[in-house]
Each structure stands twice: as structure tokens, then as C-alpha cells.
Amino acid sequence: MEEFKTWFSEWFNTHYYHILYKNRNQQEARDFIENLVAFLKIPKSKTLLDLACGKGRHSIFLNSLGYKVIGADLSKNSIEYANQFANKDLSFVVQDMREPFLFSVDAVFNMFTSFGYFDDDAEDIKVLQNIANSLPDDGIAVIDYMNVNKVIENLVSNEVVTRDELQFHIRRKVKQGFIIKEIDLTDQGEEYHFMERVKAINLEKFTKYCQQANLTIQHTFGNYQLDPFNLQTSDRLILILSK
Ligand SMILES: C[S@@+](CC[C@H](N)C(=O)[O-])C[C@H]1O[C@@H](n2cnc3c(N)ncnc32)[C@H](O)[C@@H]1O
Predict the structure, then answer these.
(1) Are residues 167 and 134 part of one domain?
(2) Whose C-alpha lies nearest to ligand 1, atom 8?
(3) Which of 63, 98, 138, 149 shows the smallest number of beta carbons within 10 Å?
(4) Range of 185's domain?
(5) Distance 53 CA to ligand 1 centre (A)
(6) Could you tell me which residues come within 8 angstroms of residue 223 by beta carbon, excluding any fewer than 6 positions away?
């Protein structure tokens, strides 16, 4: 695929992204993975893909539980960082999730809203098709998305977040089906502007997407403790998919 700049290839590749989200820590990732693994009962002999793995917090923990894990992400900087944790059963690759995967796995994890970045619905569906193609007939996939209903209901339009002595000026809005976060900051006299633009995909739309990728939604959960999904109150929309 032609390399051109998009908000997601820029923003996620900066260290500012990691500073802003540093509170989303290792412990949260571990607790969620422990709950998922207990629910899914995936044998330790299996190979897992952490799709859009970032710096690998879920990959590293899954590997520590005994799984073979591949972490894949578009951000070269994040993969370079994650590579320091690589071992014979844990590898990291630069991969655009819209491009066919060059490996087969037993389960795919797509964590912490790492989906819905593309303008064209066909590209989101392509990602789901790539996931389906990488799985055996009894394979499963987990999509950990936001509950767009609750996010939109509770949208804070202006906020200043201070992390590591940096002030992130954040403006949020919903426009043409996307939840948009504009991020401005000044660092050492330089001004920076970044954006997050994530599609407001609700359960109904996910169901249609999945049908087009020959995936079936088997379970939905509403938070990292795997409580039932509730449209009004859940923070997350966590989907367990099968072929
Ligand atoms: C919200 S972050 C989550 C990272 C990681 N899953 C975590 O929980 O820490 C989203 C990730 O998606 C990656 N990403 C964005 N667009 C991508 C694409 N087209 N293909 C693969 N990864 C992509 C970003 O580089 C970023 O690491």
C-alpha cells in the first residue's frame, strides 16, 4: 500500500501519544487479559496475534502466560520499542492491518480501540476479513472497542490534561459519524497539533461489518471485568468473534 500521512500513522508514532495515555497501564492490560484467557480457555500451545499492539503491553503479558505471540502494528517506533522484549515465542512486526497478514494464528486480539480509523467502511471490513483469513475454522477474535453511545453522551468538549509537565489541550466533537479529538500542545517552544478520529461504530454496525467478513459475534462484554454489555452504562464494547 502506498505510504502517505494519515492522522493514525502520525499521532500513534509520536512519544506524545504514549505520554498522554501513560495512565492506561500494564496492570489494566494484565487484568483484562487474565479475565479473557480464563473465559476463552485458549490452550497454552496456541499462537496469538495482538493486532495493533502498540508497544506490546498485551503481547508481552500473553507471552508471559505461555502463549506464542505475534505483535503487529503500523507504528515503526512502537515496534522498535517492543522488539527489546522479543524472544523465541514473542515477535513483533510492522504491519498495516488493512494489508493481508503473512502469518496464520489461532486467535486475534485487537485491544484498546485499535479499530475504526479509516474513512471507508470497506477498509474496516477488510481488517475483519484479514482477521478471519488468518484464523482456523475454530479460531476466535477479540475486538475491544469503546461504547460509542456512552462516549458520545458524555463527551467533554474541552479539557486540559497535564502529563510529564506537558499540557495537552483537547477538544472533542462528533462529526459525520466520527468521534474527533483535536490535541494541541507546546513543547520547548514548538507547537504541535494532532488528531484522533475514530468511527462511531455501535453494536448494530459491528454486526453488519462482521457479516460481511464471515465472522459471528458470539459474546459481548461491557468492561474489562467482562460484565454484560449495556448500551447506556458500559464503558467498553468488547466483542468475541468466531468464524
Ligand atoms: C489506541 S492504540 C492501542 C495500542 C495497543 N493495542 C495498546 O492497547 O496499548 C492504537 C494502535 O493502532 C495502531 N494502528 C493504527 N493504524 C494502524 C494500521 N492501519 N495498521 C496497524 N496498526 C495500526 C497504532 O499505531 C497504535 O499503536
Answers:
(1) no
(2) 112
(3) 138
(4) 151-196
(5) 6
(6) 234, 235, 236, 238
